[in-house]
Automatic annotation (TrEMBL):
This is Flavodoxin family protein. Residues 5-163 form the Flavodoxin-like domain. It comes from the Bacteria. InterPro entries: BilS, Flavodoxin/NO_synth, Flavodoxin_CS, Flavoprotein-like_sf. GO terms for molecular function: electron transfer activity; FMN binding; oxidoreductase activity, acting on NAD(P)H. SUPFAM superfamilies: Flavoproteins. Pfam families: Flavodoxin_3 (PF12641). Gene3D superfamilies: 3.40.50.360. Signal peptide: none annotated.
Amino acid sequence: MKTQVLYKSRTGNTEKLAKAIFEAIPGKNKDIAAFQGQTDYDMGDLYFIGFWTDRGSASMDVLDYLGSLQGKRIALFGTCGMGQSPEYYKKIEENIRVFIEDDNEYMGAYICQGKMPMAVREKYMNMKNAQNKKQVEAMIQNFDMAMLHPDEKDLQGAKKFVKDIFERIEKEEQENG
């Protein structure tokens, strides 16, 4: 089974996850590439598609690519600035998953926190006023926490995600003879 890791990374967070995922894929029949609007849609049987999150979704070129895949196994992975929010991660997954055509087998998603550009923190600082002080300070606190991510625990989580998918595939193939 040929496995393809494609990712779109803006600040290096998703690239770190992509490399951890690639490392965890068993065997040698695998490839990794930064996503740049590839048009060769028959590169693999299993795809790990990585993205950075913007307003609860992935970039349009990643979503378009997902929509072009047919008859593949697809797993998603990504990073977003918000941390400690499994509900938000689930919402991101659902927002992106709808772009995957029904003839593909969806394998799940792994999403973790990632650091954001300093310009985001500056934007938050400039937003702060008497009315939103508490909310903006919480956003700044989240920003500061995100500076440490993806950390080793996040990378290990990504590797476990890969291991679980390959175990599931192996089990399916044994059951189907």
